[in-house]
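Hi R.,

Here's the chain you asked about this morning:
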Amino acid sequence: MVAAITLPVSLGFDAASPVMGPPGRTLLGALLGLVVAPSVCYWLYKRLLRSQPSKPGSYTGDGAGATQDRDEADSKSLTWAPEATGGLLRRVSGMTLVAKVRENPTDVLINPSSNLDAQHLQRVIELLEATEESSVRKQALITLSNSAAFSVNQDLIRNLGGLPVIGNMLSDPVPEVQAQALNALNNLSMNLRNQEQLKIYIEPICAAVEVAPLNSDLQLAALRVLTNMSVTNEYQDMIVKSLPCFLRLWSHGNEKTQIHVLKVLVNLSANPSLTTDLLSTQAPSALASFFHTCTNDDILLRGLTFVANLNENMDSGAAHRQYQEDSLFSLLFGDSRQSFLVSLLQHRDEEVKKQIARIMTKQQT
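And here is the predicted structure, written out as tokens:
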């Protein structure tokens, strides 16, 4: 007779209730329960696991094989699904994934470099052409102006079609935009090949000099471009039409304006074919007062250079031509011309004395 055994293992029943049964059957049932229960649980677990589809980036499998796959994956680069990575990043850092931000077209204007490559210059030119915002146009023109200070970029901007785009900005209603366009054209006009294309803007540039407020940045910027465009004789005949305006600026402008307009006048006076036009131009009588020892040395030197050039280029026919009393010829070479020359003979500046000598030597021949 085998005594009944009470097992302290819960098989889903109250652990305090013994397993009772006929002799022998009780022990057998207990042993079967120990064997079957874990198998049933494992079978249910497998069924449930297989009924769930595997997700990208997740591992499935069991036993040693799953462990080996995971170990091999740890030693290789794995491609994880975006949603799994994003979820992981949000759980770990509390941050959400941000899509790549589309580049702002004006970013190229932020901290512009003077050494922009062709791609960046092309973008600036396209932006300048497309935008109607004055602030963006102004900054784009500043970027191009800084880049055009380098000769290699002067050619590059021309080859990229930038000259007409910049030139069209002269018609912008905002004076600041016009001034920046002129600053860019000033640097670009130092290139002789660029001047061939920029000559079509000489007329509006001369108009800007005439209508701009006296001594304004716009007026000075226009004069700088005309200085470059008048270095050679190629386009001087287009600029000489504004001579009366230039002489008025010499007479009424401040020192900065006078210096810039005299640069243009000196260039024009070096062309013998323009001498008659210059001498025939009506001149403000106040110009005579500038040939004085109290005048700014730079202004005086440029003014005397202007007179010396005209004096050397004036042939006998021009000297005996009939001029109006208010003409530049009457002012500079009339009966009173000796008065300012004599007063400047003792000037402290040697360059001034050299120009006086040029004038007096020519008159004595």
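One quick note: The chain has 20 helices and no strands.

Cheers,
M.
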